[in-house]
Amino acid sequence: MIVAKPNESLVQGYWNSIKNAPSEIKLKLISLLTESLVDVLSDNENINDKKSLSLLHEVCGSWEGPESAEELIEIIREKRTSRPPLSL
User: Over the stretch 25-72, which tens digit does the pLDDT of each residue have?
Assistant: First the structure.
C-alpha cells in the first residue's frame, strides 16, 4: 500500500471533530492510530513521507541498551520522587 499525502482539509476536519473530546478519548484514538501505523510497518508497506517514517520509527521502536527490563524497572523506581499533596 502506498500512502498518499493527506488532504489538509480532511485532516483539519478530523481534528475539528475531536479537538474538544475528553483526554481519555484522544488517548484511545492515539493508541488505535499508532497500532494501525505499526501494522503498516510490520507489513513492510511503502510510506512515501520520510518525516512520517522517521517519526514512526522513533516512537514505535524498541529500547536499545545493555540494561535488562528488570534493571530498567529498578532504575525507574529509584528515580521516582513524591511530594506532599497540594492543599487548595
Answer: 988 888 888 877 776 665 555 556 666 667 767 776 667 788 888 898
Q: Are 48 and 2 in contact (CB under 8 A)?
A: yes
pTM listed for this prediction? 0.41
Q: Phi and psi for 47 in degrees, rounded to 5?
A: -115, 120
Answer whether 59's CB lies under 8 Å from 50's CB.
Answer: no
Helix and strand totals (H; E) in the chain: 4, 2
- Which of 59, 1, 63 is closest to 30 using CA atoms? 59
Q: How many CB atoms lie within 10 A of CB 29?
A: 13
* Secondary structure (3-state) at 41: helix
What pLDDT sits at residue 41? Answer: 60
| Single-letter amino acid code for the residue at 22 | P
